[in-house]
Each structure stands twice: as C-alpha cells, then as structure tokens.
Amino acid sequence: MNRLENELKKALERVEPPAGFAERVLARAARVGDEKPVRSRRWLELFGFGVTGMGGLRWAAACALCVVLAASGVIYERDMQRRRGEEAKDQVMLALRITGSKLQIAEQSLKELDSGGQPQQ
Q1: What is the largest CA-CA distance in the chain?
Q2: In angstroms, rounded to a whole number, what is the distance separating the alpha carbons of residues 80 and 82?
C-alpha cells in the first residue's frame, strides 16, 4: 500500500465514543425537538409565511407586479404626451412656414400693384 492509502485507513479507523455520548445526544435532541426555532420563525411569520404556506411570497410578488405595471403605465403616458407635444409643435411650425410663404406672395403682389398702378415721383 502506498502512503495515501495508509493515511486514509488510519483516519477512517473505528473509534469508540466517549462514555455517555449516546445519552447526551438523545437528551440534546429531545431539548431541540421541544424548542421552537425563534429567529427564523419570526421572520417567516412577519412576511406571512407559516402554517398557510407561501402566501406571503405570493402577496409580495403580486405587489411587485402592481408596482411595475403602474410605473410602466406612467412612463408610457409621459412618453405619449411628449410625442403629442412634438407633433403639435411640428404642425405649428408647418403652419407658420405656410403663413410666411403666403404673406411673402401677398407682399409681392402689393408691391407690383403699387409700382404698376401709380406713377412714381
């Protein structure tokens, strides 16, 4: 056998437990079985877990989903208002360009009438 096998054999040899070991283990198991886990139970019950199962997790997921939907609705509405504002601005700019070109045509027609209809001094 090589050195590793010898070390494993020595480490895994049967060792007799100390006197009273079984009684101490059984006594501790009885004490632990009677006790209620304090910390973990309180946190679980705080969030709605417990006898009813995973009810708290379902409520938390439902609330998170509602928050996400509400936030996305607000963001969508804000984006739609911005787009409507940009469209209105584009329409106003187009109307101003059309009005400006029509005014230039009218001004030019007036100048032609003034110059052609009256003698210049």
Answers
A1: 137
A2: 5
Asked, for residue 11, whether it belongs to a domain, the answer is no
What tens digit of pLDDT does each residue of 66-97 get? 999 999 999 999 999 999 999 999 999 999 99
3-state secondary structure (DSSP) of residue 50: strand
In a domain, 6, yes or no: no
49 found inside a domain: yes
pTM: 0.42
Cα(89)–Cα(97) distance, integer angstroms: 12
Q: Give the domain range for residue 71.
A: 17-116
The two structure tokens encoding residue 57? 């997790």
Please count the structural domains in the chain: 1
Residue 2 within any structural domain of the chain: no
Q: DSSP H helical segments within the chain, as ranges?
A: 3-11, 21-34, 38-46, 55-117
CA-to-CA distance for 80 and 72, rounded, in angstroms? 12
CA 113: distance to chain centroid? 69
Asked if 57 and 49 count as a contact pair (C-beta separation under 8 A), the reply is yes
